[in-house]
Amino acid sequence: MKQQKRFLLRALALAAVMTSAAPLAGAAVNEPYTVRVAYDPATPRATVTWGADAPAASGYGIERRPVGATAWNEIAYVKEPLRSHADTTVAPLTRYEYRVKAYRPGGPGTGYISTSTAALQLNFPYRRGYGRGILPSNYSQDQMDADVRDMYNLWRAKYVTTAGAGTGGARVYKPDEGGETVSEGQGYGMLISVYMADGANQGKSDFDKMLTYYKSKRRILNGENTGLMSWRINGDGSVADVWTAPDGDIDAAFALLVADKKWGSGNGNPNYWAEAQTILNGLQRFAVYNRGDTHSDLVANSEKELSSTEGDANFTMSSYQVVSYMRQFANASDATRAAKWRDTLRAGYKAFDYYYEANPATALTPYTFLTKPGANQYKPSAKGYNFGPDSCRIPWRVGLDFLWHENGNSRYANSLDANIRATLAQDLPKVNAAWFMNTVNNDPTAALYGYQLNGSPWPNTFVYGQRHTAGAMAVGAMTDASNQARLNTLYDWMRKQIPGQPYSYNGKSVTPEYYGDTVLMVTMIAVTGNMPNLPEVPIPAK
Fold first, then answer.
1. DSSP label at 448?
2. What's the predicted TM-score (pTM) here?
3. Is the pLDDT of residue 29 over 80?
4. 3-class secondary-structure state, position 94
C-alpha cells in the first residue's frame, strides 16, 4: 500500500511539472517553459526566448502561426544550449503565436517532449511610420516616442476618471465644465487608449472600462437601442442630451477594430469585433442619409432615425465625414453594408472637393452645410458656415487617409464621379497646412477661433483654438515634403504643450480645456508615426 502511495505521489508531481508554465522550485524540468516574445516593430523582428533544464533535450523547434489561424509552421530548429531565436521573417504589425518544442536526442524526427506557447503583442511604440508622406525631421524617433508618452501620461491624469462612470466604467470628462462627458470625447479616449497601450501602462484597462461606459450610455429611441452613445452626459451619469453626434461613435467603432487586431476578441477579452459591428450597424441606420430616391450618403447627426428623404433645411457637419475610416468599415461589413460605406466615402470626398474648388488657396471646409442633393447642396445652413473648432479637424482626418492609403480613396471617389479631384487626399490637407502656417506667421499660438472659407478672419473673432487647430494642421502638413519646415515648427510647438496647463500669448494667459488638449493628444500620436492602420494589416479571415 505504501509503495502504491509513493508511486501515485511521484506521478502527480510529474504531471504538475509537465503542465506548469514555469518550473516548481527545486524541480528539474526538461521541457520548455516561460516562453516570451519581444517585438521590435522597426526591424521588424520577434525574439523568442524560453527556459529549459539541460541536458534532456537535444534541441528546440520554434513554430509560428498568425493569431486566429489553426496550423503551426516550424520556422527554426536550434540545438542545445540555445534558449532564444530571432525571427526576422515576421510581417509588419502582425500578431503571431509562437510554440517551442523540446526534442529528445536524435533531432526533430524523434518526437517532442512537450510544448509551451506565447503570443506577440502589438504595443506602443510602433516605429513603422506610414510608408508615405513625411514625419518631423527635427527630432529622433526615440525622442518623439518619449514626447508622446509623456503627453499621454499627463493627459490621462487630467481627463480620464472612473468617478461618475458606473461599475467598471471610465470616461473622458471636462473637469472645468461640471465634469460632463460627451460622446466625441469618449471616442477620442478609446482611440488614444488603444494606440497608447504598451502592456505595462493602463491603456488596455482604460479602453475596456471606456467601452463599458460607452455601452451604458447608448441612446434608446422608441424603445430600441440604437447602438450609438447619447451625445452629452452629466457628471452624475444622467443624460443631458440624448441625440447622437456620430463622430464620437465613428471613432469608437474604429478603435474597437484596432482593439480586435491588437488584442483579439474573446478568450478573456470583450468581443471587440461584435461591439464594432453594433456601432457600424447603428451608424448606417441612424446617422447616414442613405434612403430614398435621392440622398446624399453623408453622415449627419441624429435626433431621430433619419427620414427617407432629405429636406431643404437638412444639414450636417464637415467633421462627421471621417473619410480615413470608411474603407476599414467596408472591409469589416457584409456586402450590403460595405457598399453603403463606400457610398459614404465617395460622398465625403465629393463635399470636400466642392470646398477645395471654391477656395483653392485655403481648401477650408465649413462648420455645417446643407445636404440635400441639388442646387443648394453644400451651401450655408442656419447653423454657421465658417471654418472653426469643429471643421479644423478635417486636415487631420483627410491627412491620415493619405498617410494610410495615399490617394487611393480619393481616386476611388474620382472613379465614380470624375468631378472629384483624384489627388484630393493629399492636396486638401497640404493646402490647409500651408495656408494656416502662412496666416499665423509660423506661430501656432496666433490661431484664431474662426476664419471665413477664403481665409479671412471671422468678424469679431479672437485668439483661441491653438491646440486643436495646430495639431490637426500638423497631420495635414505630413502629406507633402513641401511642408517639412512647417511640420517641424508645428511639432516643436506641440511637444512643449502640457495638458491642462495655461500658457501665455501676447502677455495674456490662455487656459487650455478638454477639447483642445484631447485633439492635440490624438494628433500627437499620429504626427509621431504611432497611429498605424492596424485594421487593414492582413490576418486570416474571420
1. B
2. 0.89
3. no
4. coil
